Amino acid sequence: MQPGEIFSVATPQPILFLADLSRIRVRAEVDERDVGLLRTGQTARVLADAFPGEEFQATVAAIEHLMRRQKVRSGDPAEKNDRDVLEVLLDLSKTAKRLPVGLRVAVQFRATESVNNRH
């Protein structure tokens, strides 16, 4: 809300957002075909259209255990909508503090040595 606006419990609106910015995370959706390639501690690079030519480092912090329908859409009409995804949380490196909360980014996971040895 802006200063001077009226607050009412009849139509609740947030008047304050709190966030702990000491640790910035990315929430990513991983296609069901790639779930077997994920590992906690795996590194990834994060790219944002708002910062062309820059990449930010991240590490897989948590991998969900429940598959679900995709929530994030690319806007591409050819995009497949019938696949399930797994949510993954990544911790961004300290250098990524410039990224604003809520910015849409792309995540590219790096293959782990244990995964590479399976092929």
Report on this model:
This protein is mainly β and 119 residues long. The protein has one domain (25-112): Beta Barrel (Elongation Factor Tu (Ef-tu), domain 3). Helices cover 3% and strands 29% of the residues. It has one helix at 113-116; strands spanning 25-31, 43-47, 56-63, 68-69, 84-92, 106-109. Strands 1, 2, 3, 4, 5 and 6 form a six-stranded antiparallel beta sheet that branches. Strand 2 (43-47) and strand 3 form a beta hairpin. The longest helix has 4 residues, at 113-116. The protein is globular and about 55 Å long.
Helix/sheet category? mainly beta
Find the count of extended strands (DSSP E, 2+ residues). Answer: 6
Helix-strand string: EEEEEEH
Name the CATH homologous superfamily: Efflux pump adaptor protein, beta barrel domain
Distance between the termini: 54 Å
The gross shape turns out to be globular
State the domain count: 1
Percentage of residues in strands: 25-35%
Q: What's the CATH architecture?
A: Beta Barrel
- Give the CATH class: Mainly Beta
Uncertain spans:
114-119
